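Saturday, quiet lab. Running sequence design on the C-alpha coordinates for the scaffold JK sent over.
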Protein backbone atom coordinates (compact mmCIF):
# COMPACT_ATOMS: atom_id res chain seq x y z
CA UNK A 1 0.00 0.00 0.00
CA UNK A 2 2.87 2.39 0.85
CA UNK A 3 4.44 1.82 -2.57
CA UNK A 4 1.14 2.61 -4.27
CA UNK A 5 0.79 5.85 -2.31
CA UNK A 6 4.32 6.98 -3.15
CA UNK A 7 3.79 6.09 -6.79
CA UNK A 8 0.58 8.13 -6.80
CA UNK A 9 2.39 11.14 -5.34
CA UNK A 10 5.08 11.00 -8.01
CA UNK A 11 2.46 10.71 -10.73
CA UNK A 12 0.60 13.74 -9.40
CA UNK A 13 3.79 15.81 -9.20
CA UNK A 14 4.61 14.83 -12.77
CA UNK A 15 1.08 15.86 -13.78
CA UNK A 16 1.69 19.30 -12.25
CA UNK A 17 4.88 19.71 -14.26
CA UNK A 18 3.10 18.68 -17.44
CA UNK A 19 0.30 21.14 -16.64
CA UNK A 20 2.81 23.99 -16.29
CA UNK A 21 4.37 23.04 -19.61
CA UNK A 22 1.00 22.80 -21.36
CA UNK A 23 -0.08 26.16 -19.92
CA UNK A 24 3.09 27.89 -21.12
CA UNK A 25 2.76 26.49 -24.64
CA UNK A 26 5.37 26.91 -27.34
CA UNK A 27 8.27 28.88 -25.82
CA UNK A 28 9.19 30.42 -29.17
CA UNK A 29 6.26 32.78 -28.61
CA UNK A 30 6.16 35.48 -25.94
CA UNK A 31 4.38 34.52 -22.75
CA UNK A 32 0.90 35.96 -22.35
CA UNK A 33 0.96 38.51 -19.55
CA UNK A 34 -1.67 39.22 -16.91
CA UNK A 35 -1.82 42.86 -18.04
CA UNK A 36 -2.59 41.73 -21.58
CA UNK A 37 -5.40 39.49 -20.40
CA UNK A 38 -6.79 42.22 -18.18
CA UNK A 39 -6.89 44.87 -20.90
CA UNK A 40 -7.54 42.80 -24.03
CA UNK A 41 -9.76 39.98 -22.74
CA UNK A 42 -11.96 42.29 -20.70
CA UNK A 43 -15.18 40.36 -21.36
CA UNK A 44 -13.65 37.13 -20.03
CA UNK A 45 -12.32 39.06 -17.03
CA UNK A 46 -15.79 40.50 -16.37
CA UNK A 47 -17.37 37.04 -16.34
CA UNK A 48 -14.75 35.61 -13.98
CA UNK A 49 -15.18 38.55 -11.58
CA UNK A 50 -18.97 38.29 -11.62
CA UNK A 51 -19.25 34.56 -11.08
CA UNK A 52 -16.23 34.50 -8.80
CA UNK A 53 -17.80 37.19 -6.58
CA UNK A 54 -14.62 39.26 -6.49
CA UNK A 55 -14.18 42.60 -8.25
CA UNK A 56 -10.48 42.60 -9.01
CA UNK A 57 -9.46 42.72 -12.66
CA UNK A 58 -5.85 41.73 -11.97
CA UNK A 59 -6.77 38.67 -9.91
CA UNK A 60 -9.38 37.62 -12.48
CA UNK A 61 -6.80 37.94 -15.27
CA UNK A 62 -4.30 35.93 -13.20
CA UNK A 63 -6.91 33.20 -12.68
CA UNK A 64 -7.60 33.07 -16.42
CA UNK A 65 -3.90 32.71 -17.14
CA UNK A 66 -3.45 30.02 -14.50
CA UNK A 67 -6.49 28.13 -15.84
CA UNK A 68 -5.20 28.36 -19.43
CA UNK A 69 -8.38 30.12 -20.49
CA UNK A 70 -10.83 27.74 -18.80
CA UNK A 71 -13.21 30.33 -17.36
CA UNK A 72 -15.05 27.93 -15.06
CA UNK A 73 -11.73 26.82 -13.56
CA UNK A 74 -10.69 30.48 -13.25
CA UNK A 75 -13.93 31.25 -11.42
CA UNK A 76 -13.21 28.35 -9.06
CA UNK A 77 -9.71 29.70 -8.40
CA UNK A 78 -11.02 33.19 -7.66
CA UNK A 79 -13.71 31.95 -5.30
CA UNK A 80 -11.19 29.78 -3.46
CA UNK A 81 -8.91 32.80 -3.01
CA UNK A 82 -11.87 34.86 -1.84
CA UNK A 83 -12.36 32.58 1.15
CA UNK A 84 -8.91 33.58 2.44
CA UNK A 85 -9.67 37.30 2.49
CA UNK A 86 -10.71 39.14 5.67
CA UNK A 87 -14.00 41.01 5.61
CA UNK A 88 -13.79 44.64 6.69
CA UNK A 89 -17.47 45.42 6.33
CA UNK A 90 -20.22 46.07 3.83
CA UNK A 91 -20.42 48.89 1.33
CA UNK A 92 -23.50 50.98 0.69
CA UNK A 93 -25.83 49.94 -2.17
CA UNK A 94 -24.45 51.35 -5.42
CA UNK A 95 -26.63 53.92 -7.19
CA UNK A 96 -26.72 52.85 -10.82
CA UNK A 97 -28.86 55.83 -11.74
CA UNK A 98 -25.79 58.00 -11.16
CA UNK A 99 -23.68 55.80 -13.41
CA UNK A 100 -21.10 57.39 -15.70
CA UNK A 101 -22.46 55.70 -18.77
CA UNK A 102 -20.43 54.31 -21.65
CA UNK A 103 -23.25 52.40 -23.27
CA UNK A 104 -26.99 52.74 -22.77
CA UNK A 105 -29.76 51.44 -25.01
CA UNK A 106 -33.48 50.80 -24.80
CA UNK A 107 -35.57 48.55 -27.03
CA UNK A 108 -38.82 50.04 -25.76
CA UNK A 109 -38.46 53.74 -26.60
CA UNK A 110 -36.63 55.24 -29.54
CA UNK A 111 -36.25 58.66 -27.95
CA UNK A 112 -35.25 58.46 -24.30
CA UNK A 113 -33.99 61.19 -21.97
CA UNK A 114 -30.24 61.44 -22.55
CA UNK A 115 -30.46 59.56 -25.84
CA UNK A 116 -29.28 56.14 -26.91
CA UNK A 117 -25.54 55.49 -26.54
CA UNK A 118 -24.33 52.58 -28.65
CA UNK A 119 -20.82 52.46 -27.18
CA UNK A 120 -18.55 49.49 -27.85
CA UNK A 121 -20.67 46.52 -28.90
CA UNK A 122 -20.67 43.54 -31.23
CA UNK A 123 -24.39 44.08 -31.91
CA UNK A 124 -23.81 45.87 -35.21
CA UNK A 125 -20.85 43.89 -36.50
CA UNK A 126 -21.24 41.38 -39.34
CA UNK A 127 -19.72 38.49 -37.37
CA UNK A 128 -17.12 37.92 -40.03
CA UNK A 129 -13.56 36.96 -39.15
CA UNK A 130 -11.31 40.01 -39.29
CA UNK A 131 -8.06 38.69 -40.70
CA UNK A 132 -6.36 42.04 -40.19
CA UNK A 133 -6.14 41.07 -36.51
CA UNK A 134 -3.58 38.44 -37.49
CA UNK A 135 -1.13 41.29 -38.08
CA UNK A 136 0.83 42.02 -34.94
CA UNK A 137 1.40 45.55 -33.75
CA UNK A 138 -0.39 48.47 -32.17
CA UNK A 139 -3.74 49.64 -33.42
CA UNK A 140 -3.21 53.39 -33.17
CA UNK A 141 -6.73 54.13 -34.38
CA UNK A 142 -8.37 52.24 -31.54
CA UNK A 143 -5.93 53.58 -28.98
CA UNK A 144 -6.67 57.17 -29.98
CA UNK A 145 -10.20 56.96 -28.54
CA UNK A 146 -9.95 57.71 -24.85
CA UNK A 147 -12.40 56.18 -22.44
CA UNK A 148 -13.28 59.57 -21.01
CA UNK A 149 -14.32 60.75 -24.46
CA UNK A 150 -16.74 57.84 -24.92
CA UNK A 151 -18.49 58.10 -21.56
CA UNK A 152 -21.19 60.43 -20.33
CA UNK A 153 -20.37 62.26 -17.13
CA UNK A 154 -24.00 63.26 -16.64
CA UNK A 155 -26.42 60.97 -14.84
CA UNK A 156 -29.21 59.65 -17.04
CA UNK A 157 -32.68 58.85 -15.66
CA UNK A 158 -33.89 55.31 -16.01
CA UNK A 159 -36.04 54.50 -19.03
CA UNK A 160 -38.62 52.75 -16.85
CA UNK A 161 -39.23 56.09 -15.11
CA UNK A 162 -41.28 57.06 -18.19
CA UNK A 163 -43.69 54.26 -17.36
CA UNK A 164 -43.35 54.89 -13.65
CA UNK A 165 -44.74 58.42 -14.03
CA UNK A 166 -47.97 56.99 -15.46
CA UNK A 167 -48.16 54.18 -12.94
CA UNK A 168 -47.93 51.63 -15.73
CA UNK A 169 -45.13 49.60 -14.15
CA UNK A 170 -44.85 48.05 -10.71
CA UNK A 171 -43.30 50.25 -8.07
CA UNK A 172 -40.08 48.75 -6.75
CA UNK A 173 -39.21 50.64 -3.62
CA UNK A 174 -37.33 49.36 -0.59
CA UNK A 175 -39.48 49.53 2.52
CA UNK A 176 -37.98 50.77 5.76
CA UNK A 177 -38.79 47.51 7.54
CA UNK A 178 -37.24 45.33 4.81
CA UNK A 179 -34.90 42.72 6.31
CA UNK A 180 -31.19 42.82 5.59
CA UNK A 181 -30.36 40.62 2.60
CA UNK A 182 -28.37 37.47 3.28
CA UNK A 183 -24.87 36.86 1.98
CA UNK A 184 -24.56 33.74 -0.18
CA UNK A 185 -20.78 34.00 -0.11
CA UNK A 186 -20.90 33.26 3.63
CA UNK A 187 -24.21 31.46 4.15
CA UNK A 188 -25.50 28.31 2.42
CA UNK A 189 -28.47 28.55 0.10
CA UNK A 190 -31.77 27.65 1.78
CA UNK A 191 -35.40 27.66 0.79
CA UNK A 192 -37.69 29.48 0.56
CA UNK A 193 -35.33 32.05 -0.92
CA UNK A 194 -36.10 35.76 -0.98
CA UNK A 195 -35.70 37.74 -4.19
CA UNK A 196 -32.50 39.30 -2.83
CA UNK A 197 -31.05 35.82 -2.30
CA UNK A 198 -32.24 34.71 -5.72
CA UNK A 199 -30.55 37.67 -7.40
CA UNK A 200 -27.28 36.93 -5.59
CA UNK A 201 -27.49 33.33 -6.75
CA UNK A 202 -28.18 34.35 -10.35
CA UNK A 203 -25.33 36.88 -10.33
CA UNK A 204 -22.94 34.07 -9.30
CA UNK A 205 -24.64 31.57 -11.61
CA UNK A 206 -23.19 30.12 -14.78
CA UNK A 207 -23.75 32.40 -17.75
CA UNK A 208 -24.38 29.49 -20.12
CA UNK A 209 -27.01 27.96 -17.84
CA UNK A 210 -28.80 31.27 -17.35
CA UNK A 211 -28.62 31.99 -21.08
CA UNK A 212 -30.28 28.64 -21.87
CA UNK A 213 -32.95 29.16 -19.22
CA UNK A 214 -33.58 32.73 -20.35
CA UNK A 215 -33.94 31.43 -23.90
CA UNK A 216 -36.43 28.84 -22.64
CA UNK A 217 -38.60 31.54 -21.06
CA UNK A 218 -38.84 33.26 -24.44
CA UNK A 219 -39.87 30.01 -26.11
CA UNK A 220 -42.92 29.60 -23.91
CA UNK A 221 -41.58 27.89 -20.78
CA UNK A 222 -42.88 30.73 -18.61
CA UNK A 223 -45.58 33.37 -18.83
CA UNK A 224 -43.15 35.92 -20.18
CA UNK A 225 -43.12 38.40 -23.05
CA UNK A 226 -40.02 40.50 -22.38
CA UNK A 227 -38.84 43.83 -23.67
CA UNK A 228 -35.37 45.19 -22.96
CA UNK A 229 -36.42 48.30 -21.08
CA UNK A 230 -32.85 49.45 -20.57
CA UNK A 231 -29.33 48.06 -20.68
CA UNK A 232 -26.61 50.31 -19.33
CA UNK A 233 -22.88 49.85 -18.83
CA UNK A 234 -20.57 52.24 -17.07
CA UNK A 235 -18.85 53.21 -13.85
CA UNK A 236 -20.48 53.58 -10.44
CA UNK A 237 -19.05 54.85 -7.19
CA UNK A 238 -18.66 52.50 -4.23
CA UNK A 239 -19.17 53.99 -0.80
CA UNK A 240 -18.58 52.62 2.66
CA UNK A 241 -19.68 54.02 5.98
CA UNK A 242 -16.76 54.51 8.34
CA UNK A 243 -17.48 54.50 12.05
CA UNK A 244 -14.60 56.89 12.68
CA UNK A 245 -16.20 59.53 10.46
CA UNK A 246 -19.84 58.69 11.03
CA UNK A 247 -20.63 59.01 7.32
CA UNK A 248 -20.20 57.22 4.02
CA UNK A 249 -17.13 57.97 1.91
CA UNK A 250 -16.27 56.93 -1.62
CA UNK A 251 -13.63 54.20 -1.64
CA UNK A 252 -13.45 53.53 -5.36
CA UNK A 253 -15.28 52.91 -8.61
CA UNK A 254 -16.30 49.75 -10.43
CA UNK A 255 -17.68 48.94 -13.88
CA UNK A 256 -21.08 47.27 -13.95
CA UNK A 257 -23.72 46.27 -16.46
CA UNK A 258 -27.37 46.64 -15.52
CA UNK A 259 -30.45 45.31 -17.30
CA UNK A 260 -34.11 45.99 -16.63
CA UNK A 261 -36.50 43.76 -18.54
CA UNK A 262 -40.11 44.87 -18.90
CA UNK A 263 -42.75 42.15 -18.95
CA UNK A 264 -46.49 42.07 -19.42
CA UNK A 265 -48.72 41.25 -16.47
CA UNK A 266 -52.46 40.72 -16.80
CA UNK A 267 -53.09 41.86 -13.24
CA UNK A 268 -55.43 40.39 -10.66
CA UNK A 269 -58.53 41.29 -8.67
CA UNK A 270 -56.35 43.55 -6.49
CA UNK A 271 -53.83 44.77 -9.08
CA UNK A 272 -54.79 46.35 -12.42
CA UNK A 273 -53.01 45.27 -15.62
CA UNK A 274 -49.50 46.62 -15.50
CA UNK A 275 -45.91 45.93 -16.48
CA UNK A 276 -43.55 44.00 -14.22
CA UNK A 277 -39.77 43.82 -14.17
CA UNK A 278 -36.89 41.38 -14.23
CA UNK A 279 -33.51 42.62 -13.06
CA UNK A 280 -29.91 41.75 -13.78
CA UNK A 281 -26.58 43.22 -12.62
CA UNK A 282 -23.05 42.00 -13.33
CA UNK A 283 -19.48 43.22 -12.98
CA UNK A 284 -17.77 44.73 -16.00
CA UNK A 285 -19.23 44.67 -19.49
CA UNK A 286 -21.50 41.62 -19.21
CA UNK A 287 -24.65 42.35 -21.20
CA UNK A 288 -25.54 38.76 -22.10
CA UNK A 289 -25.23 37.69 -18.47
CA UNK A 290 -27.27 40.63 -17.16
CA UNK A 291 -30.02 40.06 -19.74
CA UNK A 292 -30.25 36.33 -19.06
CA UNK A 293 -30.30 37.05 -15.34
CA UNK A 294 -33.18 39.51 -15.77
CA UNK A 295 -35.19 37.01 -17.82
CA UNK A 296 -34.77 34.28 -15.21
CA UNK A 297 -35.43 36.67 -12.33
CA UNK A 298 -38.82 37.55 -13.83
CA UNK A 299 -39.68 33.89 -14.40
CA UNK A 300 -38.89 33.08 -10.77
CA UNK A 301 -41.37 35.74 -9.62
CA UNK A 302 -44.31 33.75 -11.00
CA UNK A 303 -45.59 32.58 -7.62
CA UNK A 304 -45.53 36.02 -5.99
CA UNK A 305 -47.40 37.42 -9.00
CA UNK A 306 -50.04 34.71 -8.82
CA UNK A 307 -49.10 33.09 -12.13
CA UNK A 308 -49.50 29.40 -12.87
CA UNK A 309 -46.31 27.41 -12.28
CA UNK A 310 -45.70 25.01 -15.13
CA UNK A 311 -42.05 25.20 -16.12
CA UNK A 312 -38.64 24.42 -14.60
CA UNK A 313 -37.70 28.06 -15.26
CA UNK A 314 -40.31 29.05 -12.66
CA UNK A 315 -39.15 26.49 -10.10
CA UNK A 316 -37.00 28.41 -7.61
CA UNK A 317 -35.37 25.36 -6.02
CA UNK A 318 -34.55 23.75 -9.37
CA UNK A 319 -33.09 26.92 -10.86
CA UNK A 320 -31.04 28.07 -7.89
CA UNK A 321 -29.76 24.61 -7.02
CA UNK A 322 -28.35 23.99 -10.50
CA UNK A 323 -27.15 27.39 -11.69
CA UNK A 324 -23.78 27.51 -9.91
CA UNK A 325 -20.98 26.43 -12.25
CA UNK A 326 -18.48 25.73 -9.47
CA UNK A 327 -20.83 23.27 -7.78
CA UNK A 328 -21.94 21.77 -11.09
CA UNK A 329 -18.38 21.41 -12.35
CA UNK A 330 -17.21 19.85 -9.12
CA UNK A 331 -20.07 17.37 -9.00
CA UNK A 332 -19.55 16.28 -12.59
CA UNK A 333 -15.75 16.21 -12.48
CA UNK A 334 -15.59 14.27 -9.22
CA UNK A 335 -16.52 11.28 -11.38
CA UNK A 336 -12.89 11.35 -12.59
CA UNK A 337 -11.65 10.52 -9.08
CA UNK A 338 -11.09 6.88 -8.02
CA UNK A 339 -14.33 4.99 -7.39
CA UNK A 340 -12.69 1.56 -7.33
CA UNK A 341 -14.40 0.24 -4.19
CA UNK A 342 -17.85 1.49 -5.21
CA UNK A 343 -17.52 0.06 -8.69
CA UNK A 344 -16.29 -3.31 -7.43
CA UNK A 345 -19.34 -3.48 -5.17
CA UNK A 346 -21.60 -2.65 -8.11
CA UNK A 347 -19.76 -5.17 -10.28
CA UNK A 348 -20.19 -7.95 -7.74
CA UNK A 349 -23.88 -7.09 -7.36
CA UNK A 350 -24.47 -7.24 -11.11
CA UNK A 351 -22.66 -10.60 -11.29
CA UNK A 352 -24.87 -12.05 -8.53
CA UNK A 353 -28.02 -10.72 -10.17
CA UNK A 354 -26.98 -12.16 -13.53
CA UNK A 355 -26.30 -15.52 -11.90
CA UNK A 356 -29.77 -15.52 -10.32
CA UNK A 357 -31.27 -14.46 -13.64
CA UNK A 358 -29.50 -17.32 -15.46
CA UNK A 359 -30.59 -19.84 -12.80
CA UNK A 360 -34.18 -18.65 -13.08
CA UNK A 361 -34.09 -18.97 -16.88
CA UNK A 362 -32.70 -22.48 -16.51
CA UNK A 363 -35.51 -23.42 -14.13
CA UNK A 364 -38.08 -21.95 -16.48
CA UNK A 365 -36.64 -23.93 -19.40
CA UNK A 366 -36.69 -27.12 -17.31
CA UNK A 367 -40.29 -26.53 -16.26
CA UNK A 368 -41.27 -25.89 -19.86
CA UNK A 369 -39.62 -29.13 -20.99
CA UNK A 370 -41.47 -31.07 -18.27
CA UNK A 371 -44.77 -29.61 -19.41
CA UNK A 372 -44.07 -30.52 -23.03
CA UNK A 373 -43.16 -34.09 -22.05
CA UNK A 374 -46.34 -34.44 -20.01
CA UNK A 375 -48.41 -33.08 -22.89
CA UNK A 376 -46.81 -35.60 -25.28
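Result came back. Writing it out in full:
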Amino acid sequence: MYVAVKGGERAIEASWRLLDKARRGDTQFAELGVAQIRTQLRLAVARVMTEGSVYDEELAALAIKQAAGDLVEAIFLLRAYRTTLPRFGYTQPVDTEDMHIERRISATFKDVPGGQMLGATYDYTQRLLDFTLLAEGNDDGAASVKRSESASEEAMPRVVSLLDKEGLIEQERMSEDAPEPGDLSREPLSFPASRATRLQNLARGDEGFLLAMGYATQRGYAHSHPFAGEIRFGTVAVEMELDELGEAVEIGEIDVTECQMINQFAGSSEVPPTFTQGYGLAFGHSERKAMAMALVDRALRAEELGETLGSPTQDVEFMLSHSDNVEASGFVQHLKLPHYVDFQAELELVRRLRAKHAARDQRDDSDQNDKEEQAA
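Notes for JK: Residues 1-5 have pLDDT under 50 and may be disordered. The CA atoms of residues 34 and 62 lie 6 Å apart. Ask whether to fix the surface positions before the next round.
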